[in-house]
Amino acid sequence: MLIDLFQSLAHGDGVDWLGILAQVLSVAFILLCILPLHEFAHGWVAYKLGDPTAKNAGRLTINPIRSLDPAGALGILLFGFGWAKPVPVDPRYFKNPKRGMAVTALAGPVSNLLAALLGAFVVLWTGTMGRGPVAYFLFQAAYYYVMVNISLAVFNLLPIPPLDGSRIVGMFLSDKALAAYYQRQQMWMVLLMVLLYSGKLSGPLYAVQEFVARGLFAIARWPFGLLGVL
Fold first, then answer.
1. What is the per-residue pLDDT for 11?
2. Could you say which of 22, 30, 37, 39 is catalytic?
3. How far is it, in rounded angstroms, from Cα 38 to Cα 127?
């Protein structure tokens, strides 16, 4: 996001300051409300599956201070991809540890997709407001909110430790393979950072993000179509 602003300024292009403000406020809302919801979803599902670790650690909460990760927040602000401070989970409490971890991990991205769907309704609603700065501002804020939520879901589903996708992949690995998979966690994270900040990962992630966005907007358009609004 802000990286696009810096590039526009460097090339002397015009800057849509109203759109930038809408995006910044949208990201602020995501950092303060949606990232905590993402982590809460992990903790809540783990708790329902028998793991009280998050609850005992005081992480079964939507308090943003408990889940904010500075590096992950900066990544969202700059690129639209990032992470929060992970909720502690102890798979020993699960009847089936691998499956329990997979279901717990999936809860976070699902929460982002549900939040994105709600935002899609707002985006479509702004289309009924006509033209003007207020409608434009609301559209920009809501649309960026949707896309960042989708990007968070897609990003966290990457099969790279410690992202949520690695926990889902772990369900299909043997104990030996899973141990080796996580022993190289630091190497995977370095590779992820290199790919992310070099822009090599952006293209594939954006392609998946756009595909998911089309699906969510198609779902959100149904009630408007039934009402004859759109």
1. 59
2. 39
3. 28
Which pLDDT band, with edges at 50, 70 and 90, does 1 fall under?
low
134-164 per-position pLDDT tens digit: 888 999 999 999 998 998 999 899 998 888 9
Burial degree of 113 (CB within 10 A; 0-12, 13-18, 19+): middle
d(CA 81, CA 35): 12
CB-based contact 106:49 (threshold 8 Å): no
Give the separation between CA 213 and CA 119, rounded to whole angstroms. 11
Q: Which two tokens stand for residue 150?
A: 């989708």
92 CB neighbour count, 10 Å cutoff: 10
Peptide bond before 70: cis, by omega within 30 degrees of 0? no
Dist. CA 167–CA 106, nearest whole Å: 8
Residue length of the chain: 230
Of 144, 198, 118, 145, which is closest to residue 35 (Cα–Cα)?
145
Backbone φ and ψ for 105, nearest 5 degrees, come out as: -65, -40
Amino acid at 190: V
Sign of CA dihedral 62, 68, 74, 80: negative
Q: Does 39 participate in catalysis according to the annotation?
A: yes
* AA identity, residue 121: F
Nearest in space to 108 (alpha carbons), one of 71, 163, 180: 163
Structure token digits, residue 77: 């602000």
Q: Are 120 and 216 in contact (CB under 8 A)?
A: yes
State the burial class of residue 70 (Cβ atoms within 10 Å of its Cβ: 0-12, 13-18, 19+).
exposed
